[in-house]
Amino acid sequence: MDTRIESGVNGLPKVFLEHPSGSTAEVYLHGAHVTSWIPAGGHEMLFLSELAEFAQGKAIRGGIPVVFPQFADSGPLPKHGWLRTSSWQLQNVPSALMSVTLETEEDQQSMSIWPHPYHVELKITLGKAFLELELTIQNPGAEAFEFTAALHSYLTVGDAAEAGVYGLQGCHYVDKVKGGVVETANDSILRISSETDRVYVDAPGNLELQDASRETRVRIASTGFRDAVVWNPWRDGSRQIADLREDDYLKMLCVEAATVEQPVTLLPGSLWTGVQRFTVDN
After folding, report:
1. Which of 20, 59, 177, 232 has the most CB atoms at less than 10 Å from its CB?
2. Is 152 a catalytic residue?
3. Its pTM surpasses 0.85
4. Mean pLDDT for the chain overall
């Protein structure tokens, strides 16, 4: 095993990133899953369930799962695809350990349910006050394929009821809690007070999460991804998720960079890239 790889929970390999400023992040090779990000002088910014399962074939609850080639249960494939439970390989780890690139590709199991070759890379870059994820999907095959994708980011908050998302006013969104009705966001700030599962279509590339209980602001910038998803299961939803504690809904808010409503068509030999960057203003 590469000496730059550490043993994580249940022996799963992970890479620990550290910036000269003191900021840190950790990334598991299982799912290319970012499970921690602490900016310099700050606190943990990613929610990770205490009941999260770190095991082969299991998705880690929290952090930043990679969703591909299907978002949620919007098609016949496994929910959110399989990259979040796949084993990834290190492409490179610079000696400074402030950036890492992981990669994965099709295997016999994926080809049995989705007959398309693919090559996926996830580059994670750590700065003093930012974390950036760059997802690149390449089609090395002879036929085009369609996909949806997301970075399913779980951000930690002191109290979800006191947090709010800015930048979505005027956007149309698909309200999955209401069965998929399309509505328009009229308020300047989205506050969460019940189960929320919304796909904001053609969302702005710059959003902001304000966590009033901890006096923290997180700027969320994205490129390549057309949509944004905001999700919180709230009380009843948390009770129905085995790897969440009953009150975990108060500690998290998912603000996801996504391409959901209009699938991407990737031609042979082509690639697609989406970037999500989080910057903390304390």
Report:
1. 232
2. yes
3. yes
4. 95
